[in-house]
Design goal:
Blueprint (H helix, E strand, L loop, with lengths): L6 E6 L12 H21 L4 E8 L5 H14 L3 H11 L8 H12 L10 E4 L9
Parallel strand pairs: 1-2, 2-3
Length: 133
C-alpha cells in the first residue's frame, strides 16, 4: 500500500466488541484488541494515505446466526421461527442485517468517498447498540 501511494484496511469484528455479551469473554477481549490495534495503525499510517477502520456488525442474517437461533430454540423447547421473530423485534430498525448491509459500508470505506475516514469503529446493527459513544 505504501508503494501504491495509499490504500484501505477494513477489519470486521462484532458488536460484542463494543457492547459485551455474557459468555463471550474471549471473543470480546480479542475483538477489543483488534479495535485497539486498528486505531494505533490508523495513527501510524495516516500520513501515508492508508486508512484503517473497523466494522462491528450486529445480528446479520447468515447461516451461522441461523444455527445459533436453531440451537437456542432447541434448548428452550421453542419453535425456531418464534426465536427469530423475537430477535428481530429486539432490533430497533425491525430486522436483522444482511451481508449487503456490511458490504455497502466496506465499499464506502475503501472508495475515494471514504478517503477521509480513518481510525473509526462503526457498528452496523440497526440501532441495537444502546450507548452514546
Amino acid at each position: 500500500m505504501r508503494a501504491a501511494g495509499g490504500g484501505s484496511v477494513v477489519n470486521i469484528t462484532a458488536l460484542s466488541a463494543v457492547q459485551p455479551l455474557i459468555g463471550f469473554a474471549l471473543s470480546v477481549a480479542t475483538w477489543a484488541g483488534v479495535i485497539g490495534f486498528a486505531k494505533t495503525l490508523s495513527l501510524e499510517l495516516a500520513q501515508e494515505r492508508i486508512t484503517i477502520n473497523t466494522i462491528c456488525p450486529g445480528l446479520i442474517e447468515t447461516p451461522r446466526v441461523n444455527k445459533v437461533f436453531a440451537k437456542r430454540a432447541e434448548q428452550e423447547g421453542r419453535d425456531p421461527s418464534l426465536v427469530v421473530e423475537e430477535v428481530r423485534r429486539s432490533v430497533p430498525i425491525g430486522r436483522l442485517g444482511t451481508p449487503d448491509d456490511i458490504a455497502a459500508l466496506v465499499a464506502l470505506l475503501v472508495s475515494p468517498l471514504g478517503s477521509f475516514i480513518t481510525g473509526t469503529t462503526i457498528q452496523v446493527d440497526g440501532g441495537a447498540r444502546q450507548s452514546l459513544l
